[in-house]
Design goal:
The complex is a heterodimer of chains A (377) and B (286).
Chain A: H1 2-37, H2 41-71, H3 75-81, H4 84-89, H5 92-119, H6 122-133, H7 139-146, H8 153-180, H9 189-202, H10 212-221, E1 225-230, E2 233-237, H11 241-247, E3 253-258, E4 261-266, H12 268-316, H13 334-357
Antiparallel strand pairs in A: 1-2, 1-4, 3-4
Chain B: H1 3-16, H2 18-25, H3 36-65, H4 71-75, H5 82-97, H6 100-114, H7 117-128, H8 131-139, H9 146-159, H10 163-166, E1 175-176, E2 181-182, H11 184-197, H12 203-211, H13 224-238, H14 252-262, H15 264-267, H16 271-284
Antiparallel strand pairs in B: 1-2
The chains are: A alpha+beta (377), B mainly alpha (286).
Amino acid sequence: MVEKNMKKKGSFLESLVMTAIFLVLVQTFLEDWSVVVGWSWGIRRILTVTGFGFDVFFTLEFLIRLYFAVYRGRVKDYIFHERGWIDFLASVPLLLLNSGPSVLTLWAGETAAFALGGSLNVLKVVKAIRIARILRLLRTLKIFKHIKNAESVMAQRHVTKVATIATSMLVFGLFLFTLLSAPLGFPSAEDLFNAEKETIIRNIPPGAEKNPEVIKNYAATEESLLLIKYRGQTVYTRYDNHYYDQWYGPGDYDYTLQDSWEFFFDNSQVAAVNAKMNLMFFFIVVVLVLAYLLLYGPHFALTISDPIHVMRRGLEEQSYNLEVKIPQRYKDDDVYRLSALYNEVYLPLKDRTREQDGQTGSLDLKMEDLGNLFDQE
Amino acid sequence: MTPLQKEEQILQFLKVNAAQLYPTLASPAFFPGKSWNEIISILQNMVALNTNNAIEPGIQKILSENMDLSFIQLIRQQNMPQDQLKKKIYEFVSSILSKQEARFEFVGSYNALAYRFVDKYLEEIFDRKQYTHFELTKVQRLKLGKDAVKDMIRLSILLKPAVFLLAESQGAGKIESGRGLVQAAFAEKALQVMKQKFVVLPDEVLASAVHANVSFQENPGLEATSRIASILTSMGKAYKPDQQIDRGADTADKSWLSIARKNFRYYGFDIKMIDECYMIAAENGW
């Protein structure tokens, strides 16, 4: 009874995790999609917080699994053979480097963000977050852990292994490329935007501080300029405060302090470029995973696990006499050459032996099948 | 599995596991003080009773709904009304079921008829007009329509195990266990006995039924109806109505016929008929 309850709870938790995996994939897509299509800050804030919630959930899941692995002395098995490393990479680093800092920035609000911008280099933080975001793609691999192929453990393991290697290598490749793009001298969208900002600041007309009209006319021609302050006083704003509240969050603008000037730049175009890249990576990974699940999985079943399953049953069960179906185009595969022997030699021999054996040959019923039928009270 | 197949499994199981089962079955909760032979006899009777209850409606249905005996009139003058004739056949089949060896052989007949193998294959055979059709119409020279030929084959299948009723008790010789074949000489003796016992049926029908137990390798002059009845009955013996076809496996009929192609000498099948049935099964996805 206790075991049954445990199983029930375990099954419920596995279903919960599976649901969370599907939902987090939707959330991953929407978080970037919302930036590309320019959804309001309110919606994007909800998505950011939701992402944080998922990362907390998956971090807890990882820690609980790790706890039980430690408890059972199977840490190595869990980490390396039961794909605990994916559980780890798809949770803890994301919480610490991606959703955690994002939510902290949200909670701290604009002031803190600017203060942070003053003391640290905001762009470095943003870059770290952006790089870590790529690891979110590893979440797709968690699906494999929960999709069970009841008919063949081998098929499940092989498809999962190949998909994991391909997907994780792709994600790590992207991760490394993003990490090394700056040292290698590849300009990122941020770098180009920084250069643009510097140019804008450098080209402020001389004497603009004395003539507000000059700065207004200049700012109006630079689309990325949102707001300019001089000695704490707003000298130009592209939109009113209500508009900023509705459409701009902490990561949507950049702040630069130059002498007595304060510049607020619209960062949404850079964010959109990065989000598009993320979406592209996301689609590549999703397509890759789906291809393994929907194309390679059935191919593996057709050419490896199904014929083996049929032959195993034929060898195990006396009265099982179905032949392996041999597709012409694969007939030279080792598995199908073995299947041909099974069809041509083993089954006819088994059939004759069974008939010669007469009494016991076709018996499929075993003592174990009776269970406790003859148990006496 | 069908009831007869279940019975076969149970009886084989009891025999194989006698040593393990006897202490439990001889205990006070079951059959205290009885010998193993007594116990097995009781169980065998009980199982047979249950099986009979399960299959009797099926046999009645086969006779009443799936079999038209009017073809007999086309073979010879027969005044007995069909209902009466069917009643006699039913009684005869019941007597077949009273003997254990015949019961086991009846598995194939029952399945082949209950699951309409004759309809499936004969329809195709008559559509194709190839080897089997030629054998039926030109070699055996059956002057019967398609439906009448089907009925004759059905009746042959139903009466095929009758040969096991007459076996050793009639001093006719031995039956080859396992393959279910009888030697041609034995079949002739059995046929003579059946002719005396079953005067209401034409000799052609009885010969077709009895010869369905003879190897085609041993007697290449066998009636085509016997050869096809032999194949369909053997197929019925291995047939599992509720069998799920695994992914990656061939269909049940095709698999069975493919194995039969390789073992045709052993079972005494007509290889050309087997080949034709194999093609039919393959093309129809059976």
